[in-house]
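Worked example 3 (structure in, sequence out).
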């Protein structure tokens, strides 16, 4: 097993990174781009492991079994820093910490590596903090930025990075990965990979979580019974509530554990009055948790809308006789009936309404319920 095994359907990218790890075309800054689920952060992690692999043969680096590879894959290597945010954006303070860290000499590996998994979640002034460090890197420092597309990164940064463009892997490759790595049932793995539209993380969740499969089924069936404005309002409320409940379920326990750890660190028992001098630390934690909760809801709602979009995608392929395999195979009869009662122009308008809503909830401060209600009415 090597570090490249999880990069399914990315043979050209693997070959490019293998050659770079062997010293052919290695540069100090890389930009990994690709749609959600394509594995851009997985590719960056595999490349970081290969660069600090302990195998002497340069053509075999990325072995996946040496101490260097295992430490990077476990995100415990002292010379490899992974930067991701669970909040809406990466702050300028976090960017300054990255720059300071990038100036350190490697402790045990060949390279000091900074992997920024959410490079698209930085404001322009925050990205500018990284500019000089990427423009004039210290020796043996490698930057790896990950973003959905090159346009999501400031042009001055983008121009100084070598691009690595990933694509979504084939459904069969994702299903095979779920079977081999996670022990999923082959039939369920194939259905999950197809329903997730080759997004590896979502496919894994669908393959192992029956409740997630049920929620998705309810979402993609929603257009079949959407006839009136009142039904649209009810649908919008249900979609937002489902996304909020799913996000809160994963956050509540974690928030409580973080609060307990902080109080223990401060030497305060739960329920005791917090001294005024320590309240700012608790307040900062609560603010961070609120920002994380907001992003969790946004991400969950975006996934729900992506599932809804897949229904109209199947409808459009039928209307245009695209000859493309449907995503929602279990709804084949319903999709055919829906497609026959509509037009491609109407379907495209509905898809545009969904994509517009996705953009609004992820890039603006619009109230999610209002945005989804407007979208649901447009789907009638």
């Amino acid at each position: 097993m090597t570090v490249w095994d999880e990069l399914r359907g990315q043979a050209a990218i693997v070959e490019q990174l293998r050659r770079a790890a062997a010293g052919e075309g290695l540069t100090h800054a890389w930009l990994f781009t690709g749609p959600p689920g394509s594995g851009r952060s997985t590719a960056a992690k595999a490349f970081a492991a290969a660069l600090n692999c302990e195998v002497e043969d340069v053509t075999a680096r990325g072995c996946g079994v040496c101490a260097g590879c295992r430490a990077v894959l476990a995100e415990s290597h002292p010379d490899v820093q992974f930067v991701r945010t669970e909040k809406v954006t990466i702050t300028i303070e976090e960017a300054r910490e990255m720059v300071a860290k990038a100036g350190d000499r490697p402790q045990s590996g060949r390279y000091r590596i900074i992997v920024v998994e959410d490079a698209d979640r930085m404001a322009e002034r925050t990205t500018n903090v990284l500019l000089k460090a990427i423009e004039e890197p210290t020796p043996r420092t490698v930057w790896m930025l990950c973003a959905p597309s090159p346009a999501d990164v400031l042009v001055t940064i983008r121009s100084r990075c070598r691009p690595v463009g990933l694509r979504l892997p084939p459904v069969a490759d994702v299903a095979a990965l779920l079977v081999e790595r996670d022990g999923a049932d082959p039939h369920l793995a194939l259905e999950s990979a197809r329903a997730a539209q080759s997004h590896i993380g979502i496919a894994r969740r669908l393959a192992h979580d029956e409740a997630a499969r049920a929620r998705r089924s309810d979402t993609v069936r929603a257009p079949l019974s959407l006839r009136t404005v009142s039904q649209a309002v009810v649908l919008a409320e249900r979609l937002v509530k489902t996304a909020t409940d799913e996000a809160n379920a994963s956050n509540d326990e974690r928030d409580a554990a973080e609060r307990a750890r902080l109080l223990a660190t401060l030497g305060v028992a739960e329920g005791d009055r917090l001294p005024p001098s320590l309240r700012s630390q608790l307040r900062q934690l609560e603010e961070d948790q609120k920002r994380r909760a907001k992003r969790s809801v946004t991400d969950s709602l975006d996934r729900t809308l992506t599932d809804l979009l897949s229904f109209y995608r199947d409808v459009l392929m039928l209307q245009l006789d695209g000859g493309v395999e449907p995503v929602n195979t279990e709804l084949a009869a319903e999709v055919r009936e829906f497609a026959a009662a509509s037009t491609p122009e109407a379907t495209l308008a509905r898809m545009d309404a969904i994509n517009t809503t996705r953009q609004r909830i992820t890039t603006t401060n619009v109230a999610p319920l209002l945005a989804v209600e407007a979208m649901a009415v447009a789907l009638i």
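Notes: The radius of gyration is 23 Å. The chain has 15 helices and five strands.
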